[in-house]
Amino acid sequence: MFKTGQACNIALKREERHFSLSSRWRNARIRNEIQINQERLLKDIHYTCQWGTGPRWGSGVNDTGMSRLALTDTDRQARDWFVDTTRSLGCKVSIDAMGNIFAVRTGKKDGPPTFAGSHMDTQPSGGRYDGILGVCAGVEMLRVLQENKLEPEFPIGVINWTNEEGARFPISMVASGVWAGKIPLAKAHSLQEVGGEKRNMKQELERIGYLGETEASFHAMPIGVQAYRWHTITVKGQDCHTGTTDFVNRSDALLGAAKMILHSHRLATKYSCLASTGILEVTPGSTNTVPGTVRFSLDIRAGDDDRLMQLEGHLKADVDKIAKGEDVGNLNDGGSPGRSCSVQWALEAPSTALRFHVDCINCVSQSARDIFGEHLTHVMTSGAG
User: Fold this and answer.
1) Is the dihedral of CA 160, 163, 165, 167 positive or negative?
2) How far is 105 from 99, CA to CA, in rounded Å?
3) Concatenated DSSP letters of 304-344
4) Rounded to an integer, what distance in angstroms lies between the CA atom of residue 205 and that of residue 210?
């Protein structure tokens, strides 16, 4: 839930009665009268999954994953559904320069809206709920308001963010990052896709018709996520033939990269952080050629900035040693020493650890405890971003 100005008090009017979320929403009678329609929500989720359906994992009609990468034709179809549906529910829809879609329903008073939402793009092998549930739950909120003739005190709305996953264009939360003033628009627009035709975000926004004219900016947006830093690490050795070059005379970039990736996992475990590699590019890519160049992604995350930077500093020192052939953490045990490699780091996407405003946390936490009980309610940090 994104809150852009007003406190968590949305006054609801129904049959000349006024209910305040902060003081009376917990009344059991009101909760029984005003509820989401679970069947309708699930129907919306599965209906939108017709665009970008992934591999089948079961025999049921909905037993498939999702593969709806940002700004593809299937993403455009899902966006069209979101725009048409929210407009039919009385919302004014605007699209900014990053393709973020804002559907706003007016309130009794003018003011900054309170938003729900998420994203409809997925990973190449994603599921049916991550992101999609957040958007469809926001749409269900609008349906509940409409069918119960409820008028909020201030505007409310639903957002669909662009490329939140960072799967096709390799910076996660890039469009919301531009909107929040954390990422320059020009950098985001020039971001090239992973693989494929190397088209950039602006080209694809134009192609699918979602390059909006509204400025991608914000007035106030409290966020709460763990810190992360995305790096591209390039290891350079020397190409050589696998049959004519013995181990001692090899400068094997892939072997060095493999040791670095394993070591990143071990160090992240030591610091109670996370470290992951999802992209690996090997050059020249021949069975009987020892790789001379390897590029790999390194995603490191932690609940606070200091711990994350400690991990990164330790990793950089050890990676240099590994590239030189030094035995770090017994990584060379049982193998043969070879020649050294060089290594370069490129920071692609940093994000500091931030916290939601305490009032927002308390509002959501109390509502969850009232509905599900203390034993089913747990406060957690967003690990995905």
Assistant:
1) positive
2) 19
3) SHHHHHHHHHHHHHHHHHHHTT--STTTTTTS------EEE
4) 5
Rounded Cα–Cα distance for residues 112 and 109 (Å)? 10
Half-sphere exposure of 98 (CA within 13 A, CB side): 29
* Contact in structure between 78 and 141 (CB atoms under 8 Å): no
Find out whether 343 and 320 touch, Cβ atoms under 8 Å.
Answer: yes
pLDDT band at 367 (very low <50, low <70, confident <90, very high): confident
Instruction: Report pTM.
Output: 0.62
Q: Is 375 exposed, middle or buried (0-12, 13-18, 19+ CB in 10 A)?
A: exposed
Amino acid in position 212: G
8 Å CB contact between 90 and 104: no
Which residue bears the tokens 């725009």? Answer: 83
Write out pLDDT tens, residues 98-152. Answer: 999 999 999 998 888 899 999 999 999 999 998 999 999 999 999 999 999 888 8
**Quick count: other Cβ atoms within 10 Å of Cβ 162?**
30
